[in-house]
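Here is an idea for our session: we take a single protein and study its fold together. To get us started, please write out a protein record for me. Start from the sequence, derive the backbone structure tokens from it, and show both lines together. Go ahead whenever you are ready, and we will take it from there:
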Amino acid sequence: MPGIVIVGVQWGDEGKGKATDLLGSRIDWVVKFNGGNNAGHTVVIGDEKYALHLLPSGILTPGVTPVIGNGVVVDLEVLFHEIEALNARGLDTSNLKVSANAHVITQYHRTLDKVTERFLGKRMIGTTGRGIGPAYADKINRVGIRIQDLFDENILRQKVEGALDQKNHLLVKVFNRRAIAVDEIVDDLLSYAERLRPMVADTGLLLSEAMDRGETVLFEGGQATMLDIDHGTYPFVTSSSATAGGAATGSGVAPNKLDRIVGIVKAYTTRVGSGPFPTELFDASGEFLRSRGFEFGTTTGRPRRVGWYDAPITRYATRINGLTDIVLTKLDILTGLATIPVCVAYDVDGVRFDEVPVNQSDFHHAVPIYEEFPGWQEDITGVRRFEDLPIRAQEYVLALEAMSGSRISVIGVGADREAVIVRHDLVD
């Protein structure tokens, strides 16, 4: 079974890197198909902790070919910083492939991201300020710079001139910032060209050929379903397709080659940035989840917003992505709670919604309807079989499974690489 997609079910930070790592030696290729260095993965291997932002987390597995697909926006400074950091720790990154069609984040994208967000005031989106949105905007507006452009200085200069013509007017006249010189951008980008050249390829072709040979390709999504540009909580979303459909468009692989769609969901819910969040907690329960789960952004360090598990969101993600399996992470964080509330529906101005409302205003005003489940006190971090979990933990998992519309195949019970319970194999 060659094509496996991993997507986040909630608003990101669900533990997708760990799921990728779990598949480890059983995959041949791992592809990042959307986003940029706004999406952080933390992977723990033994005593070593690796925080990756742009590189796919599968790069940590020997023998796996990592790919940055065409749907990604690439900050070259970050790319080489991550490569150098991994090399310094003895990891081999020489197999990395970068799509010639991926778009490049430049200095002016980062500048515009920051000044635009500040300009919005109370209407801030919650961007990470890393230039992701402006780079995607240029892509859509057809003034973006692709990786392949770095190898033709004449074309690169023309594209930078065209992009800066309008942006400098905006920076100077609206935001009262200095104009950005064309030479400054061109020289910076060209400084990466020769280091980049050996990595650049027609990655869609490479991946299709690999799958035709029967090799297993893992597509590793950044962000998550509720941050998808089309299907998330718009406008408080990312600028790319973070759902399973984005795996095909963001990698150049045909949709019928995607055989398994694995959704990653926490045993509770978190969110970073602005936007609606029906189950958000502002009390001691929220602080318990945040401190126990160490809920701070891998990329930004920002405290994550936390709340109880939201079953309608998981059902929505199951439908949008066509989930075949769910990986439930951080079950161990709930240990010690007397009762565990689960959102089973919403109340919007006295009307019950069993599914996520299509109207974002309704979703913003949604009040969760909870069902309470008894908690457990036993330490579960050493458990490796489902039947060895405390009976109340088993009941909690089975209840979530029944509400979610897809089977829960893997359960995370701790931070360690091995701290998982496998109910159903993700590769079969």
